């Protein structure tokens, strides 16, 4: 590993010096720029790392040693303004043949997709200079891919890349949209998982909004977005009566109950016929549906399972404390937990029968644990009683033996 790193660094240094030696752009710019200038930042940039130079983007001729001469070159592209950046990047990135020669795996649809986004539409149609263009999200002179931890598109950095504008109330003034997405996201299960636990499987802004089509997912695409990662819940929802009902009412599927940016960890109080249950937001006992009756039945089944599970755990803990072998029952109690997780996701069927049936399965298992753990405790006391009797017996035996030996000693002494 170390060998590889050294080899890599060696190549990199060699490459950098050859590039620097042939590029007057870099040499001259380093003379007057500070460390935050393009000529220094560029070492972090994937274009530079893959062998491209200043000329590939800006044009000019790297063998010239005068900036005015550079500007006079026919191919000089200069510096693009905010509106020109997308085409400036797309000259290469939308050129399938060119990109294929460099990296056949890279898509070449960024500009096309960008044009369909709220950002792109406003940029091109309204000449809106405040919406994101390519470099608002990718930076400039330190562009890198989503795998590089220092990159603005690395999942852990994306929320702040978007938040630069979207969490800045002053910057977003004049647009009629909230600026709480970053704050809410940070508090959500997703934000906690991504930013605190560093779980790269948790979504960043672009997982839901897309990279280049950054737009609010519409009602239709919404379930698909959440369902990419939560396939079980999405499937159960799709087969429930809520699917059609929500579509008819234009309620977004998952967001209606879970919100979008401030998704909290759900618990059993979310379902039931009393607040804070979500069901009472839309249902009442006289709304002509069996919504709340269902909610109540589901809630009751879940709490009964949770209570039985807790009792079983208490008895089992007691048995373990007494030093009994509880492995089998612990395994069974784990199964109860799996059943509980499944029963909770079945809430999305809004079908009381299926939740109740699953809950009963768990309750039966938990009861078995209770019975078996109680038996283990019984065995413990039985053994303890046995031990006490045995100890008593041995003591009596020892005393008898002692007396006997004393007598024998006396007899011998008397002789
Ligand atoms: C001999 C020194 C020198 C060389 C060689 C040089 N530059 Fe410059 N360049 C400068 C200076 C100085 C400025 C700043 C001009 C100013 O601030 O007015 C500059 C400005 C720029 C700018 C800002 C836009 C502009 O027109 O002012 C870009 C882009 C740029 N250079 C790119 C390049 C590229 C690409 C090359 C190589 C093909 C290159 N430079 C070669 C000295 C150099
Ligand atoms: C991947 C394309 C790309 C490469 C490679 C690149 N630039 Fe740039 N450069 C840009 C873009 C885009 C802008 C416009 C930035 C903006 O609008 O803020 C820019 C702006 C500039 C500017 C003016 C604004 C500033 O940031 O100071 C200078 C000077 C400059 N580049 C120099 C260089 C030099 C020197 C190199 C090589 C070391 C280089 N660039 C390599 C894309 C590139
Ligand atoms: C001269 C052509 C050219 C221009 C102009 C250009 N790029 Fe690139 N870009 C490339 C090449 C080539 C690669 C590296 C492909 C490889 O080898 O992996 C690349 C890689 C990238 C990557 C990393 C892709 C990945 O996931 O590996 C990003 C992001 C990127 N460019 C963004 C931009 C942006 C933003 C601009 C405009 C400021 C831009 N590029 C301008 C040619 C270009
Ligand atoms: C709203 C922010 C945003 C804008 C605007 C944006 N990008 Fe991206 N781009 C991203 C993110 C985030 C990724 C990382 C995707 C990932 O996780 O792999 C990405 C990925 C890329 C890639 C890697 C290949 C791919 O498609 O996944 C390239 C190349 C790229 N962008 C170029 C561009 C160009 C060119 C533009 C302008 C036309 C642009 N981007 C505009 C956010 C943006
Ligand atoms: C340079 C600032 C800037 C950056 C960076 C930026 N945006 Fe935006 N975004 C805007 C502006 C300005 C609008 C236009 C607001 C409007 O018209 O409603 C917008 C619009 C949006 C919208 C549409 C909102 C609506 O309902 O109209 C979404 C969604 C969005 N951005 C998501 C993102 C995501 C995700 C990222 C990061 C990957 C991002 N943006 C990065 C400035 C930015
Ligand atoms: C778990 C998926 C998900 C994540 C992660 C996510 N969003 Fe959203 N976002 C949504 C949904 C769903 C909507 C609402 C769409 C609707 O109602 O039409 C939305 C709406 C928006 C809007 C429109 C205005 C609003 O608040 O309704 C913006 C802007 C936005 N998101 C930006 C962001 C930013 C910035 C991040 C990262 C900090 C982010 N989103 C993370 C799913 C997500
Ligand atoms: C990129 C994958 C991904 C996407 C897209 C996604 N999630 Fe998640 N979600 C996760 C991960 C990973 C976790 C687990 C976080 C943790 O460690 O607690 C999670 C957790 C949750 C939780 C809490 C579950 C629990 O048991 O604590 C809910 C609720 C949730 N997501 C709802 C949604 C909704 C609603 C959407 C769409 C608006 C969505 N998710 C989009 C990956 C995703
Ligand atoms: C955003 C509003 C909303 C929320 C929240 C909601 N429902 Fe519904 N539900 C509806 C609508 C609308 C219908 C269709 C009613 C109709 O057919 O008249 C429906 C139908 C139902 C039905 C089918 C009723 C029947 O008689 O066919 C059940 C069962 C149900 N909901 C249970 C629940 C439960 C349990 C919860 C809480 C976990 C819940 N709902 C939360 C809006 C909601
Ligand atoms: C009618 C309201 C409602 C809708 C719509 C809804 N959920 Fe839920 N969701 C709940 C309730 C209630 C719970 C909590 C169940 C519990 O813990 O007892 C929950 C829990 C969850 C959990 C935590 C793990 C689990 O399964 O218990 C995830 C993940 C989840 N929902 C994802 C989704 C996704 C994805 C969608 C869209 C396809 C969605 N939900 C739609 C009400 C809803």
Short recap of the structure:
The chain has helices at 2-22, 24-32, 38-41, 46-49, 54-58, 67-71, 85-93, 96-102, 110-116, 118-126, 134-138, 158-166, 181-187, 189-196, 205-209, 219-227, 231-238, 241-249, 255-258, 291-321, 327-345, 352-414. With 415 residues, the protein is mainly alpha-helical.
Would you mind describing this structure in some detail?
This protein is mainly alpha-helical and 415 residues long. It has three domains: 1-79, no CATH class; 81-210, no CATH class; 296-414, Up-down Bundle (Butyryl-CoA Dehydrogenase, subunit A, domain 3), CATH 1.20.140. Helices cover 62% and strands 0% of the residues. It has 22 helices and no strands. It has helices at 2-22, 24-32, 38-41, 46-49, 54-58, 67-71, 85-93, 96-102, 110-116, 118-126, 134-138, 158-166, 181-187, 189-196, 205-209, 219-227, 231-238, 241-249, 255-258, 291-321, 327-345, 352-414. Helix 13 (181-187) packs across helix 14. The radius of gyration is 35 Å and the shape is elongated. The chain starts with a helix and ends with a helix. One heme C binds at residues 24-25, 28-29, 32, 54-55, 58, 60-62, 64-67, 70-71, 78-79.
């Amino acid at each position: 590993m170390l060998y590889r790193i050294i080899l890599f660094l060696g190549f990199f240094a060699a490459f950098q010096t050859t590039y620097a030696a042939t590029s007057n752009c870099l040499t001259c710019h380093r003379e007057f720029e500070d460390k935050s200038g393009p000529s220094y930042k560029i070492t972090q940039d994937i274009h530079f790392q893959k062998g491209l130079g200043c000329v590939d983007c800006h044009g000019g001729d790297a063998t010239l040693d005068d900036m005015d001469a550079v500007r006079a070159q026919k191919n000089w592209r200069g510096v693009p303004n905010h509106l020109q950046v997308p085409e400036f990047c797309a000259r290469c990135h939308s050129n399938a043949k060119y990109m294929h020669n460099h990296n056949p795996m890279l898509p070449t649809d960024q500009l096309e997709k960008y044009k369909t986004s709220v950002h792109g539409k406003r940029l091109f149609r309204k000449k809106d200079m405040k919406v994101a263009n390519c470099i608002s999200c990718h930076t400039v002179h330190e562009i890198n891919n989503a795998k590089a931890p220092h990159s603005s598109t690395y999942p852990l950095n994306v929320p702040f890349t978007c938040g630069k504008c979207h969490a800045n109330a002053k910057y977003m003034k004049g647009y009629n949209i909230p600026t709480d997405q970053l704050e809410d996201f940070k508090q959500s299960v997703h934000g906690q998982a991504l930013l605190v636990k560093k779980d790269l499987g948790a979504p960043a802004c672009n997982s839901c909004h897309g990279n280049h089509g950054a737009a609010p997912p519409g009602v239709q695409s919404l379930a698909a977005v959440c369902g990419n990662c939560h396939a079980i819940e999405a499937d159960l929802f799709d087969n429930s009566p809520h699917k059609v009902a929500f579509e008819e009412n234009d309620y977004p599927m998952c967001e209606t109950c879970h919100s979008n940016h401030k998704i909290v960890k759900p618990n059993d109080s979310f379902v039931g016929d009393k607040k804070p249950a979500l069901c009472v937001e839309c249902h009442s006992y006289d709304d002509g549906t069996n919504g709340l009756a269902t909610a109540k039945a589901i809630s009751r089944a879940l709490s009964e399972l949770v209570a039985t599970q807790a009792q079983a755990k208490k008895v089992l803990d007691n048995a373990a404390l007494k030093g009994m072998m509880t492995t089998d029952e612990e395994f069974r109690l784990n199964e109860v937990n799996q059943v509980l997780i499944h029963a909770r996701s079945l809430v999305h069927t809004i079908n009381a029968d299926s939740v109740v049936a699953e809950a009963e399965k768990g309750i039966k298992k938990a009861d078995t644990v209770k019975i078996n753990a109680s038996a283990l405790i019984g065995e413990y006391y039985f053994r303890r009683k046995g031990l006490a009797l045995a100890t008593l017996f041995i003591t009596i035996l020892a005393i008898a033996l002692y007396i006997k030996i004393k007598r024998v000693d006396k007899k011998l002494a008397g002789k």
